[in-house]
Amino acid sequence: MKKLLTLFSLLLMGNVQAQDQFTVYFDFDIDETNESSEQKLSKWIGENPNISVNKIYGYTDSVGEAIYNTDLSERRATHVYSQLKQAGIKVDDAELKGFGETMATGKSKADRKVVLHFTVSENMVSPQNDAKPVTPFTQKVTTANKGDKIRIPNLNFYNNSDVLLPESQPVLNELLAIMQSKPLLKIDIQGHICCQIAEENSISQRRAEAVYKFLSKNGIDTSRLSYKSFGSTRPLYQLPEKTEAEKVANRRVEIEIIEN
Question: Which superfamily does CATH assign the domain made up of 18-124 to?
Fold first, then answer.
């Protein structure tokens, strides 16, 4: 009987999931992460790609009306939820809730936060020798020579805008990971447009700058980064393009390897 109980206990222990918490802090009366918190969140996401977030709880300090603080804490939780979702973290079943000032100890910054409760199943952890497949983009960048130009794939913006679409987040995180793993790598980020000879609103430069700002905001030294616009002066396909595919190919952001 004791052997059966021992075996049953071992089976239960084998199914136990590691549980932990991660906290994101906010500035006073702000519902979006500041630069420091954004960097820490991005780093944490990069280090924990296989987690499942179960709870996203927002909090505030005790300053202000209770009703307002409840709404503020919910907006903070929603902001972090969006960041996780865009990065591909499993959050669909997470409980999203704002507790306002109910747990506040006063006016402390420590109260202005979102606490993530997450789980890592033991059977989700890959052996160290089970390397994650290298994507074609990572392969190209890590093996490139000085002067090589590489298009950033799946990098998309809202129409006539430098605002990145949410589906662009994975490739931005991938580029960030490459820059972090290759500290000597320097790149020039180059914007291009399609369809028109005369560029309007400096859109290609603003798009290149958006990538530059993402990398610098997440801890990449600006001495390793530069950006510029070529407008429509270097099309892959002659203007006017004949197909939508040619337009997409011309409307791109590339990186040029400056030093590796």
Answer: OmpA-like domain (3.30.1330.60)
